[in-house]
Amino acid sequence: ARGAALAKLEKPKKKKKKQDTSGDSEDSSISEEEKKAIADMAAKEAKPFSIADTMVTLATRAGFGDYQVNAAMGLAKSLGMNPRECASMIVEKIRPKIEDFMEEPEIAGPGFINLRFKPEYLTSVVEYMASDPAGRLGLPKVSKPQKIIIDYSSPNIAKEMHVGHLRSTIIGDTLSNLLSFSGHDVVRLNHVGDWGTQFGMLVEHLRDEYPAALSLETSQDVDLGDLVELYKAAKKRFDVDDEFKARAREGVVNLQAGNDEEIAAWQALCAASRVEYQKIYDMLGIKGLQERGESFYNPYLKDVVEDLESKGLAVESEGATAVFLEGYTNRDGTPLPMLVRKSDGGFNYATTDLAAIRQRVEMTSEDGGERANRVLYVTDAGQAQHFDMVFSAAKMAGYVPEGSSLEHVPFGLVQGEDGKKFATRSGDTVRLKDLLNEAVRIAGDDLRARTENENVPDDVIDQVARIIGIGAVKYADLSMNRESNYRFSYERMLSLNGNTAPYMLYSYARICGIIRKASGQEVVANIKWPEASKITITDESEMELIRSIVRLPDILTEVEQDLYPNRLCDFLFETSQKFNKFYESCSVNKAESPEVKSSRLTLCTATAGTIRLVMNLLGIEVVEKM
Ligand code: ARG
């Protein structure tokens, strides 16, 4: 998104005859109006606290100020101007808009513009953040809320929910929290894999083993036992027994036709799976995720294929129906088909996603559609090509109206500590329940060891261990660039040092302790700071902390656009490090004067509020004492 402002600029009308590469000659072909337009553009973009998507970017180094504008060189080149002159032209335009809160812009090097906030402006922002009674640190909601669908978690019925689903759940939840905090209308959808040919063999297996599951009256009450075992047993029969295989094929047809017995068995399977994954959601504290599985889109599938055929996009291919898209080939160079109807008439994964796109962005609410502005799909990077193809087919078919975007949010693999496949010692896939329980257990043991002599009640230990353990798993996942693979390590994620949940949670509790002691108030989260004690700077470390905190709105805007939650973790880590530096050099309780003490308390409150807010966006609770 960066540089979009530049792209919006009109190209200069007349091309220079022959560019002298030094670029320092004034070009007569640029009119005064054009120069004015460019500078106006730059000025308009230079707004504080919503600078993303403009030519003003966060400074990459403290020495460059708080923001920087690097556009002058590029502009100057395409306009045939002197870069420093172009920079000062931009500065002239920006100055009146920013002089209330920024120092005189500084032109550096070949034409960089460095922008630096005035200290008194920064302190007033933090005073405002600390005093916000709504508990959102003074952050405004977006003026034009969008409807945003987030498709995440999405496990498959009767199959094990694996670490990939865990990543999707954690990342999707954070993005949902963030976008709804910003004021968007967020719809959290669980696109459960609850349809497909595997149900034929499952239904037939139930017919033999759990006949009561095939009656609509009794199917709800049947205990199907361990679903993963059930799946394995059915699959085994399917693979070796031809008679069973034939029955399974028939079972699918009957299910699709809506026969009572098959529907009853299918419902029993879905209900049993739902109980299983709900346990995981409860452990993770996932709320507001609506189940809208693949079966929801069944009524639209036939239409999609017919529509694609009528538009000449879908064609017959070896008995099946497929869409061929330019640029997609198999390894051997032959065109790669995107199947939308199998030779037996059944539909494919892609067909459902195409139907879902129509329901999510094309159809109006009158027709039962969502008309979302943005749809985010949080899945492993292995599905990138699937989504690429589905999105381009949808666009070609005209399903994606102007003002709607479809975005795949891919993530990498979770690997074992040795960098190989993530599995148990015996090589089986790791059950999520076991994984989460193990993290909580380690956190609990650690906590008990450290509080041995403090008589902490068991239920408090258990509660804090749960927050640390689950928080550690989430934070470890979110703090990585989501596109890279990462190695799962209890030791690293539960470490008290480094960019981890325990470190952040302890930092938060420590700040709360300082505030409790200095303010005499028991519950820090409830403290209102209406007097917004004026901040008096006595030490450079205070200013550094402030510069870190005030970046929050920009960070949120960035994540809202490019969907990388690790920026939030980096921000938290940096802020808490700045806090530690501040606390090393500045005493709060024994401050040199009452003014300085309340100033520092305000800083502590703003820092605590910032950490609490961001941790909550990451789906992690905080505790004030631990
Ligand atoms: N159930 C799929 C899986 O386990 C993920 C579904 C993602 N969402 C979608 N609209 N295709 O891989």
UniProtKB/TrEMBL annotation:
Q: Name the enzyme group at the top EC level.
A: ligase
Q: Does the keyword Transport apply?
A: no
**Where are the stretches annotated Disordered?**
9-34
Residue ranges constituting the Arginyl tRNA synthetase N-terminal domain according to the UniProt record: 28-117
Q: What GO cellular component is one of the record's annotations?
A: cytoplasm
- The DALR anticodon binding domain covers 504-626
Q: State if Cell membrane is listed as a keyword.
A: no
* Keywords of this entry: Aminoacyl-tRNA synthetase, ATP-binding, Cytoplasm, Ligase, Nucleotide-binding, Protein biosynthesis
EC number(s) per entry: 6.1.1.19
**Its catalytic activity?**
tRNA(Arg) + L-arginine + ATP = L-arginyl-tRNA(Arg) + AMP + diphosphate
UniProt lists the family membership as follows:
Belongs to the class-I aminoacyl-tRNA synthetase family.
Q: How does it assemble?
A: Monomer.
User: Mind telling me what this protein is named?
Assistant: arginine--tRNA ligase
Its ancestry begins with: Eukaryota, Sar, Stramenopiles, Ochrophyta, Bacillariophyta
